[in-house]
């Protein structure tokens, strides 16, 4: 059975072709994995420069412009499963929240909105993705900041501490910065995804389409990502400092030390590369996701 194209279709309008065997779960899983790998590989050098700008050791002592692909191995290992886990959670929960809202919410009296569905679903997706993302970020950033020569060396260094701190200590080291990463990613996503979804809805209304194209999704994702990136830069600085610290330190203690020692301006370090990187990343990430999702849904 195939869907009927919208009456106002034009030559540039995506049209649904034939029924696909891909389920929504499979589409989110595969499209998310592709999007995560594409964005991490293509924009990794900018991420490296941002990390070095935020390092307490300084930009040039942390490597400067040398070895900008240091740590890329750990990023590639974690990008596909992390992004896939995010989109599976996001799309699934978003669909269930929409169904819940249409039934009237709790006892028929809870007035939820579509943007709130997106905020809740995206936040849950980020928490799930951080289970994969945080260990790879810890390893990646230590290689990027020249604390270790490679991702493998950073991983071996952490594992070698087992005799000193035990298995639990190694586990905590791998997940260092978990709390602040979630604190950064949830606000970021709560800004980016509702904005992206709202702009996509606007685009569909103005063009009379059932779905946006990959290019349109990429452009809108770039705008949404840049706005979210700028607003959450202070949290990103704090997360980076915690992951690069030689010893584990509480977020509030680290915040006070940066504020008192370097001033509030330190929390804006790396904002330019971060906004540039995430704006470009939003285009690649959400554009490639939309392309893969549309292809598997039979939309061309």
What does this structure look like?
With 300 residues, this protein is mainly α. Helix content is 71%, strand content 0%. The protein is built from eleven helices and no strands. It is globular, with a radius of gyration of 21 Å. It starts with 23 loop residues before the first helix and ends with a helix.
- Tell me the fraction of residues in β-strands, as a range: under 5%
Low-confidence runs of at least 5 consecutive residues: 1-12
Instruction: Calculate the mean pLDDT score and round it.
Output: 84
Shape: globular
Order of helices and strands: HHHHHHHHHHH
Summing up helix and strand content along with how strands pair, one would put the structural category as mainly alpha
Gyration radius from CA atoms, angstroms: 21 Å
Largest sheet: none
Number of helices: 11
Please tally the β strands and state the result: 0
Task: Report helical residue fraction.
Answer: over 70%
CA-CA gap between termini: 17 Å
């Amino acid at each position: 059975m195939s869907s009927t194209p919208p009456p106002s279709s034009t030559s540039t309008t995506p049209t649904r072709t034939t029924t696909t065997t891909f389920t929504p779960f499979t589409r989110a899983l595969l499209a998310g994995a592709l999007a995560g790998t594409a964005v991490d590989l293509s924009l990794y050098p900018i991420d490296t420069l941002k990390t070095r700008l935020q390092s307490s050791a300084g930009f040039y002592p942390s490597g400067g412009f040398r070895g900008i692909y240091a740590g890329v191995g750990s990023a590639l290992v974690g990008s596909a499963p992390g992004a896939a886990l995010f989109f599976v959670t996001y799309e699934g929960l978003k669909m269930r929240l929409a169904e819940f809202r249409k039934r009237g919410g709790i006892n028929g009296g809870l007035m939820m909105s579509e943007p709130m569905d997106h905020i809740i679903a995206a936040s849950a997706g980020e928490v799930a993705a951080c289970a994969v993302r945080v260990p790879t970020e810890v390893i990646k950033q230590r290689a990027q900041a020249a604390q270790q020569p490679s991702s493998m060396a950073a991983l071996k260094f952490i594992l070698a501490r087992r005799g000193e701190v035990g298995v639990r200590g190694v586990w905590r080291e791998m997940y260092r910065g978990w709390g602040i990463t979630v604190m950064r990613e949830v606000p970021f996503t709560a800004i980016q995804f509702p904005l992206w979804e709202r702009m996509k809805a606007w685009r569909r209304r103005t063009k009379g389409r059932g779905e946006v194209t990959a290019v349109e999704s990429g452009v809108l994702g770039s705008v949404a990502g840049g706005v979210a990136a700028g607003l959450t830069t202070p949290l990103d600085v704090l997360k980076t400092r915690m992951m690069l610290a030689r010893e584990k330190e509480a977020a509030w203690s680290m915040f006070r030390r940066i504020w008192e020692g370097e001033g509030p301006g330190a929390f804006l370090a790396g904002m330019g590369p971060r906004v540039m990187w995430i704006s470009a990343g939003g285009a690649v990430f959400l554009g490639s996701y939309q392309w893969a999702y549309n292809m598997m849904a039979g939309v061309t």
